[in-house]
Amino acid sequence: MTETFLDSAVENYIYELLPERDDVLLEMEEQARLRQIPIIGPAVARVLYQYAQLIHAQRIFELGSAIGYSTIWLARAVGAGGKVYYTDGSATNREEAQRYIERAGVADRIVMLTGDSMELLHSVEGEFDLIFNDVDKHQYPEAYRAAMPRIRSGGLFITDNVLWGGRVARNEADQNTQGVLEFNRLIYGSQDLFTTILPIRDGVAVCLKR
Ligand SMILES: C[S@@+](CC[C@H](N)C(=O)[O-])C[C@H]1O[C@@H](n2cnc3c(N)ncnc32)[C@H](O)[C@@H]1O
Known about the structure:
About 45% of the residues lie in helices and about 20% in strands. The chain is of the alpha/beta class. The termini are far apart.
């Protein structure tokens, strides 16, 4: 589990309530714990899955996919006819993700792209029902600018780590905290979005595009 700002007993209670995942997801969670890979984990993954299903998402773009944990949850949410774009800067991550994605049985609905996620978004045409943002935190304002014009009306822009371990509330001076602070101002200030922050794990922003 990554850094959290919640009371640890409350955090543990939330995680204890969660139903068991399948073998592939459990192995990924274990690998993430052992190797400190910053995946969203099952509590936030369920938020993604739930919102994707609520809007019947069929076309999803992910900014920052790492070993494909969130990608697999999104791919299961869209179902057999849907499409999820995996993007990550690391070819090693992509190779590892590919293996998990095949074992999870969702390779047919995932397009895997390596490079800068925002550039890759520019290179793929069309609108998306949902864009999930989990790139490096100093890049969040850039991710906002790239994603906004690409989400359909009634679609969702979801972003992880928007409470950034509580550092946003302390206005810490580092680039990542400042990136998240600027991002949160943008998503609440936009006339084109209706935004809420869910204080689950490290904070998840759910933005409805008008
Ligand atoms: C927090 S991890 C993603 C975890 C993943 N969403 C999950 O929950 O399973 C962030 C990943 O984004 C990648 N990344 C960060 N900034 C990026 C960028 N601008 N373009 C492509 N990949 C990026 C990193 O390589 C890292 O693997």
